[in-house]
Design brief:
Residues 17-71 form the HTH cro/C1-type domain. This is Helix-turn-helix. With 231 residues, the chain is α+β, with helices and mostly antiparallel strands. It folds into 3 domains: 3-81, lambda repressor-like DNA-binding domains (434 Repressor (Amino-terminal Domain), Orthogonal Bundle), CATH 1.10.260; 96-167, Double Stranded RNA Binding Domain; 170-228. It has helices at residues 3-23, 28-35, 39-47, 54-63, 68-81, 127-147, 154-157, 170-177, 183-190, 194-201, 209-228; strands at 96-104, 107-112, 121-124, 162-167. It has a 4-stranded mixed sheet. Helix 2 (28-35) crosses helix 3 (39-47). The longest helix has 21 residues, at 3-23. The chain starts with a helix and ends with a helix.
Amino acid sequence: MSKELYIKRRKQIGILLQLERKFQKLEQEDIARSLGARQEYISKIEAGTRRIDILELIEYCEALNFSLSEFSWKIETKLSALSLLPLPKTNILGRKIRVEVSWSDNRFSATFVDIVPETLEFNAEIFAELQIKVKDGLDAHLKEMAVDGNKVPMWLVNKEYDIEYIFLDATSLLRAYVPFLSLAVISRVSGINQNQLSQYANGLKKARPNQVKRIIEAIHEIGKELMAAEV
C-alpha cells in the first residue's frame, strides 16, 4: 500500500469518527475522558494526523456507544465510495442510511449524515414530499456517480437499505406528524401540555432533549396502538 493511500484512508477514518461524535453531541473532551487520554490525542486522530490501531479503535467505538462491526461497515462503505477500498458486494449488516431533518423558512430540509460522499440537501414544504425527494435524489445521485466513472457499492445500486430520518428538533418532528396526529392526541400520550407542543411546532420555544424524547415515545406508542387495531 502506498503512503498516499494510507494517509487518505487514515484521514477519512478520522472524519467518520468526528462525524459520529458530533452526531451524538459529544465533545472531544468527552471521548478523551472515556479513553483516559488527552484531548490533543483525540484531535490528532480525527484530523487524520495520528495512526490509530485496532485496539484504540475498539475503545473509541465503545466511547461512542456502538460496536466495531458497525463502524467497520461505515469505513468500508465510505472508503469504497471514494475508491480507497474495493467495493463491498452486499450490505451484510442491513444498515440504514441516516438523514437529518430540520425545519426553517416554512419548509423541511434534509441532508445525509453518512454513506453518501458528497453533501446532498433536499427541501419541501410537506414531509411526505421530502421523503420522495430524498429517495429519488439519492437514486439520481448514484446514477450520476456511475456515469462519471465513480464506483458505487452494489448494495446501494440494488437498494438493499432503509432510510432512517433523524429529526433535529421538536419543530421538525411535530411538523412531520401533525398532519396525521393532532397535538391533542400527542399531548394526552406524552403528558406534555398541548399549548407547549404548539409552541414547539411553531418554533416559538425550543424543547429540551428529554421533552423531544417524550414526544418521540408518544408517537411510537400511538403507532403501536394503531397497528394493533382490528376490524
